[in-house]
Amino acid sequence: MSYKTIVVNLAVDANPAPIIKLATELAQRFDAHLVGLAAADVPPLVSTGEGLVYEGEVMQIARTEIEKRLAELRDNFEKLVPASISSEWTQYICGPTRALGIAARSADLIVTGDGGEDVFRAVDIGSLVLGAGRPVLVAASNAEHLLGKTVLVAWKDSREARRALSDSLPFLARANEVVVATMEPVSGEEVRNSLADVAVFLEHHGITARTEVISGEADGDSLTAFARSIHADLIVTGAYGHSRLREWAFGGVTRTLIQQAGINRLMSY
Q1: First to last CA, the chain
Q2: How far apart are alpha carbons 214 and 60 in whole angstroms?
Q3: CA 252 → CA 19, 219, 256, distances in Å?
Q4: Spatial separation of the C-alpha atoms in residues 268 and 237, rounded to whole Å
Q5: What pLDDT, on the 0 to 100 scale, is given for residue 240?
Q6: What is the pLDDT of residues 64-73, one digit of tens each?
Q7: pLDDT tens across 101-129, in order?
Q8: DSSP secondary structure string, 71-129?
């Protein structure tokens, strides 16, 4: 199993060089076709002294500025991706989350930096993971490389975690060390059997993994701290084991991981 088409999202308000370099390295590693994508949209309303109004001239100016920025990003992409890599460029005048959802139809992996609050110019990571139907690699802030030497698989006996495990096999197969860890208050027989089954599954794919039980309730900060303690540079996790509404209201592992800009995260749903 491998990733044959990788889509990389270039945020219109960020320096594109780090994410292009990281995605280029992944395309080389997996012998994949690389699709550069950038998107932004004009808000339907503009603010004036009289309130929020539709102003055609102002919106056209904003659209022209977006098109200029997309052209700059395309130029960066084409200059930084070597000719030895199969690649193409695509851009949209629409929200980045929607654009990536469209591109996901023909992608094996989506690579993006962190998201933002402005849905017209920045990707909503949570919505992307929920809607793309593809694994989403959220790169650490300004990271230019993802070596994937030590990969932490955050295990929970759920559909989302199983999906993430399968989706991450290309990374796991190339890792020097794979650690499958679950967070549980008590390490009972059922927990140990679940981890053992995962280890057997990976062994059948030629991947040797060790298993760990992290004592305590499932918590994104504890998971990230454990990842750093084993020097993992990639966390693999299923997203939104609870409803997204509950995650945002009460907190959860997915919500915390989305906010952890210091480490690479691969999420599936």
Answers
A1: 19
A2: 54
A3: 27, 7, 6
A4: 7
A5: 74
A6: 999 999 999 9
A7: 999 999 999 999 999 999 999 999 999 99
A8: HHHHHHHHHHS-TTS-EEEEEEES-HHHHHHHHGGG-SEEEE----S-TTTS--HHHHH
